[in-house]
Design a protein that fits this description.
CATH superfamily of the largest domain in chain A: Dihydrodipicolinate Reductase, domain 2
CATH topology of the largest domain in chain A: Dihydrodipicolinate Reductase, domain 2
CATH architecture of the largest domain in chain A: 2-Layer Sandwich
Oligomer: homotetramer
Helix content of chain A: 25-40%
CATH class of the largest domain in chain A: Alpha Beta
Largest interface: A-D, 46 and 46 residues
Structural class of chain A: alpha/beta
Number of domains of chain A: 2
Radius of gyration of chain A: 19 Å
């Protein structure tokens, strides 16, 4: 049994972490910090947690003491908090972008921030780095778009089947966070599709970093906001260097993700859909169709707040502490 | 040909006024004021107006000079602006709540504001007050909920058929305005129905004021936000004092709204729907069904930004200046 | 450990039953019947169940053998199936309307069907009839609208506080079932609110039957379809016979639902919201505000497919077999 | 003044044709045919037309007599109807795919139909073929996806800037027509993104045919259904063969579409949005951003039922008869 803290628990990722931790059989106490909501029951911010006996507490990060801390803090804020936790031998899963990059220059360029405290961290994609995560004290939880895009692209890269991937992603609005903005205003994003950060989204270099480890592949990435609450549907368009069949490609994916409990490779006649993964930690990957120009389409579906954030963070915790990888995450999607 | 100004043209009602004024055959110049967007083309805020050659201008209200001014200003701000315009013999259609109340005490209580400058104004519901509007120099444009609720309730009140109306309204999110808030945040209002201001919405006393002029009827009112961009569907539940038929009630409505160009009374087998009025100035009224308890249901549908705001304001302008009541408004809804 | 069958498992209620049964610690084998999909894996119809090793089977009801059968069959079909199951000492939870009525005449009038096989059944609302359900072999699972409406109305009726309830319900589209119709066509119900069966929905007499047992209260009911996938938000408007306070009414509700694990009475400053119960078996009840006319508003929120159907059916099964009432249902809502 | 007929007027394209024809100053009588709804007022099917005095009539195509006929008939049905109309010297705008292809083999392969009656037709994209349309008696109105995709791609093809275009389109559900299907069922397409016909949509060869006329460019195309009623947002991903700037590309587009009244080229800091064109005949094109891999993104937005179908058909009619190209179409989008 472990004690768990969430720093910055009042956002959507905080709410989702609490949803899973609540029923986690290896978790003893939960501490949820928030400056703004100190003393308030968590259900006043996260209404689905109604009945949960837990209040936000305004504890400064240096005073937080537990076996693991989830830093659900903004980019740029985590780097001020994480080093002290690590020094005090507390395991950390950081949900910001601060520790995702091997090359600090890339981080500083794309996030337009100076990194004050680089540390060794493991990129928290368990399907790839499970062994390293087991021994890590700092795990950098992947971004939401990268999770769907990388899982859909890696087998193609590893098999040297492609040189370039063009990733066209469609994200639900919860990906923009709990704070209202012009982009999340219902009359703007309802009944609409909004492309944004067309060529310069900071998830691009994160995808590029991971894909490049498996092959010499260039990444192009464009995200869109769609009138959906949760979910990212990623359409990967790329051109095959060799003349292979859909069946062959499916076999490559089957092999690559064998015994990965949260990746489901679909049959050739199935298409991933958001409702199949809504609220769950699954990443569904499918399609593998090849057109007359040698373009292959691979499609993935995840819940951006679960496999794209908090569910994956719990999966990382489970691996770090030797728990069952599926503990507290063994729930299916909400369809319809 | 007249010159028209909009004070506060950067909100949704401003955008809609421009949509109608753009094609109005009696309008000469249009002035659109905005402090925030001075010098910017209107299409940068109202993207549907792309191609319209008009810039926002930061002109103080006392400097605005035209034949008519629409004050699309917040409650409490209009009262600081309107008296000076009226003094300068400029006609005004005020879209705020500041001039809608016969009894200033009721305004001050429900709006929690001190009224600094009461004036004689005509309540701008043309189906009822067309003759007064013709001669008015200040028209108080009705609220969006009151427009749908009053038009659906008046014939029952006038015929002394009921003592109480229970109004359950469902509004699209654009009714909350152009500014993002927690309530308009897509993950909050999408896939949801949000009752609000359950018993104390300030449109209640406005509905009460107008219905009471036609009969001794008590008004209860509860609004809900639904995941819709435009439109208000109003369900009026009330109990008949006499044993009448649906046919009879429909005849009452047919008579009451005879020759009112923007009210359409539906056949008994039809139900009002938002898409039939979307983008248009129509108010569709129908249903008239009576249940085993003597409860009758009357339903109205309007576009909250058109008949519930800017379209009605143009209709009032048309009447004030002796133009065809339908000028610039003769467009049907957008279905589907 | 029990064996469970679902007759008619290819609809939404079938899919939801499987979602809960999958993780139920007292369930041994599951049989899912479907004529249309015989031999097909359940996940081809219910994509969220991907990975579940279960195929639909075309077994005739008389051949189904298990400890309990859920009849997820249409109104009129259950009466042909249930008697044989009961004769064979199989417990039944029927999700149709066929066994919900004490008075067969009312059933036959409102469902426009001849009832060929009346049986003694317990109305499966565990908050009211838990003791009877314990001993029942046939439980009639309540309708979705009645569940939200009855739970919101009963305390008022029992305390003799009101004479009439006017129920205005807003339902998600999944309530219309898995089969596409004109009403569920996205361009029709998206961006729209559709009142239907204004005074003659067959859930009205079901609500009336149950409320009348607690007090002499007349029921008026009007449902609306809103652009929401899951959830029913019920607004109960009614007039108080006595001058009581919101605090008092809340106390009445607190007392009535004490130790009912799936009803949550909200604080006076909270409003029920669909996302707080989405995917869960909770019914949230709140508001209790009283207006100047003595009208009180009570609002409830449920997930129509869970507390309004399959979750409640599992809750009934748990009670019938002496399992923990919350087994397999101890999951919170999906917010946002 | 001309007389106009619509064969198959009960679908969405029929409803939109009527919306524009209603206010067209050069149109005398309108005939709307429908077998199913013979004798019924058009507003019973198209509720936004409430108040329009027009009934569907069951007239066989050979009996239809007017100056122009819009055949809003299914693929495969138009070829049985159009030849007789042309023989009788009636101008035709065909909204099906039957006359869009130069090469009948391609039509027969992709539509899986035998073409019984090929005729000379002009492809009705006025921005390209205006001169030919002037003299045509048969215009094949383009498909909805092709309209957005071709207009976004042609300038790149003509300038020989690219070799391949990868078109990722997101369509509103009205594109699937008025008939309910599993794909248009709200619980399926709401809160979801559904890729379909991934590599074999029959609009692909139509796009390919037109793009190839301007340059040796290969087309890949994948459509998605998004929870939107109207609109197609097309994201064109392609790789530049030369090192040019965004400014240069914008100039190319500005030049290509100079004096085309319904194409608006956006400033570099603007992104096309569906609400800016909703209900209108505009096609907005913008973005022109170039990433580190030399990929350029061009985005277009249209209303699939207007510029993608009925609005374009009216535009074609206007050109065929020498009317003002904008007659009846000079309306802006509905934002928000």
């Amino acid at each position: 049994m472990i004690d768990v803290s969430i720093i910055g628990a009042s956002g959507y990722t905080g709410g989702e972490l609490l949803r899973f931790l609540k029923n986690h059989s290896n978790v003893n106490t939960i501490t949820a910090t928030s400056r703004q909501y100190n003393g308030i029951n968590v259900s006043k911010v996260h209404p689905h947690l109604r009945g949960m006996d837990l209040k936000f507490r305004d504890i400064s990060p240096e005073k937080v003491d537990s076996d693991i801390v989830f830093t659900a803090t903004p980019h740029g804020a985590s780097m001020d908090i994480v080093p002290n936790l690590i020094e005090r031998d507390i395991n950390v899963v950081d949900l910001s972008g601060d520790y995702r990059f091997d090359d600090i220059d890339i981080y500083e360029k794309w996030y337009n921030l100076k990194h004050s405290a680089p540390l060794n961290a493991v990129y928290g994609l368990p399907e790839i780095y499970k062994d390293k995560i087991k021994d890590a004290n700092l795990v950098a939880n992947p971004g939401c778009f990268p999770t769907g895009a990388i899982l859909a692209s890696l087998p193609l890269a590893k098999e040297k089947l492609v040189e370039t991937v063009i990733i066209d992603s469609k994200s639900g609005v919860s990906g923009a966070g709990i704070k209202p903005t012009e982009a999340t205003h219902y009359p703007n994003c309802g009944d609409n599709v909004i492309p944004y950060a067309i060529i310069n989204h900071r998830h691009m270099p994160e995808i590029q970093q991971e894909v490049a480890k498996f092959g010499d592949v260039k990444v192009s990435f464009t995200p869109h906001l769609v009138p959906v609450i949760r979910g990212i549907l990623t359409t990967v368009h790329t051109f095959l260097k060799e003349d292979v069949t859909s069946d062959y490609v499916k076999e490559v994916y089957d092999g690559f993700y064998e015994s990965k409990p949260f990746v489901r490779i679909l049959d050739l006649d199935e298409i991933p859909r958001l409702s199949a993964v809504r609220g769950s930690n699954y990443c569904d990957i499918g399609c593998f169709q090849i057109d007359q120009n040698g373009r292959i389409v691979v499609i993935s579906a995840i819940d951006n707040l679960v496999k794209g954030a908090s569910g994956q963070a719990i999966q990382n915790m489970n691996i770090m502490f030797g728990f069952d990888e599926k503990e507290a995450l063994d729930i299916v999607g909400l369809h319809p």
